[in-house]
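On clarity, I found the account of how folds are encoded harder to follow than it need be. What matters is that the chain and its backbone geometry are given together, residue for residue. For the editor and my fellow referees, an illustration may be useful. For illustration, here is how one protein appears when written out as sequence plus structure tokens:

___
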Amino acid sequence: MKKLSLISLLAALAGCGNYFSVRVPYQVPDMPGAAAAGSALSALYVTVKTGPAPEENALGALAAALANKSGPDFRPAELARRAARALTRPGSSVCAWRVDKSGAADAFIPLIKPAGLLALTANRPSVSSKKEERASVYYDKKKQKQTVKNKVWVYSASMYAEIKLYSWPGAELLDSWSDNFSYSEDRLDDSKDAGDWYADAEGKLFGAVTARLVARYAGRPVDRFRPVFRKKGDKESEEAGRLAQRNSWEKAEEIWLRRDEAAGGWRDSLGLAVAAELKKNYSAAGAYYRRAQERSAGDKEAAPVRWGEIYRDLELVSSTRAAGGCDGGWFGERTAVLPFSDETASVDGPPLVRQLVYESLKAGGYNLVPLEETDEILRRRGFSDGGQLGAAKPQELAAWLGAQRLVYCNVTDFGEIMAGVYNRRMVKGSVRVWEAAGPEISFEESVVKIKTPKSFAGGMFSQLAKGLVERIKNKPLAFETGLFSQQVTENLPNSVKR
């Protein structure tokens, strides 16, 4: 065993000098009954539930834009991604995350096969900026108390969220709580729009959420101190204690193991237990601790040993390491993104949507059939357009492509309306996911962006220039299309690597 100088820290001699304490670091969750939830936490599926963005009509969107009250751009996928990353650590593990906008039963759970489901329901954040007067006190050179009043603008964002942890497949509710998370910042002026401020501060608001999730489920650092005893007058026992105190654990273990096998005393079993716990061999540590407790019965010298705390810690770490599913089968299935059908007049738009959806799915951890390969195979079968795919059964398409999953999309809106001080850019579509071994899933997504420049001439020039650049690059509505592709992907399970 290597020297554990960073793991074992010698404390001051305690009691009558027959033992010393060794520091053993742990991650202890704040969640009540954490040990019972250990299996669920070992393979989590994280979902962020939020309602879809309200559909914008032209008049309402224009009025909101002119009044500068369109509200902040809330990114539930970013919250889900951050939560998944934060909980992938010792004490918990996440195998997939997604954004749930439907409110219906999650059809992906039986396909992913997690050990636990962490469902976070979040309201759209409220953002505000208001002026406040602050007073500061100082003493001048004459030691006279002076008060100075300053005006500050307080920008703040708050979000109410409910969190529930379930075991799976039993769907037993293991934990339920809610809180109002917030972040605020003082600024010297109100030159920044509250929505723009929130865009910069959103990560800090989400950080407040993930910090609570980590403390409750993955745990916070806690030091445990385990005693190692030496028997007075027993040269071997004293030598083993000295070796352990000097971090020569391997040599100490040799002595304890030989004596323990020869029906030695409880001190030898306890020393072996502490050594195994430091090596994170928790099953062996538990067996040695139980043997030490049995052998120490009636010995007052063993009073400093906190048996209950030891067994609770071992139960916790053992439960969090239980295997619980999420074997990666969902992401391992070969997935084909089929040519998109469309109901628009745009030639370049739908192919760009498809390309970006493909790239977004690839970043989400999917095993994809290359687009060129998909198109070539379908052309050989007489299919050159997404609108033609209805003539073939999904099973046939999957067999031709060697895929277990097909992604269909119909782009229903793709365009821009420019009217001087009014600029509306929109991408809409419906998505259908066919599974060879599961239910068919469908949903709709839309991105609508309204801008109202301050001047007619400036607005027209800006819109025309932006449109010209996009046409030159053959990437119309590039920003909105990229956002649409991300929103499509967030409806599906994503790997934590994303």
Q: What stands out?
A: The chain is about 35% helix and 30% strand.
